[in-house]
Design a protein that fits this description.
Length: 119
């Protein structure tokens, strides 16, 4: 009888460990997807800003096995610029991140004033 009770408790413990490990795996996937989406959005902003000195605007899109990138840069009057970019991950857990970059161009010097990150 004692062996039966111990067996039931042991299997209950194993089940709790499996539930906890599944939850942790899900959290790790969400974290990875969020970090990758942020990285993709930053890469989109960098690609859009590649010709910021010579071009009045730019629009880039790219896709690989990690996700998709989209970036858009617009120069405004007075040397101000705005870059908007988004990154979307692919895989089991999908995540989207966006970044907006605002700044000023002085001749050939580019100054970023502030950025806004959103999910």
């Amino acid at each position: 009888m004692l062996a039966l009770v111990l067996a039931v408790l042991y299997f209950g413990l194993i089940e709790l460990l499996m539930i906890d490990s599944a939850r942790e795996l899900s959290e790790a996937r969400r974290f990875r997807a969020r970090i990758m989406a942020e990285t993709l959005a930053e890469n989109g902003a960098e690609l859009a800003a590649r010709e910021i000195i010579t071009q009045p605007s730019a629009h880039v899109t790219a896709q690989d096995w990690q996700g998709t990138i989209e970036g858009h840069m617009v120069k405004k009057s007075g040397g101000q610029f705005e870059i908007t970019a988004a990154g979307t991950t692919t895989g089991l857990t999908e995540s989207v991140a966006r970044v907006r970059v605002f700044g000023q161009i002085y001749g050939t010097e580019v100054r970023i004033q502030y950025t806004i990150h959103s999910y």
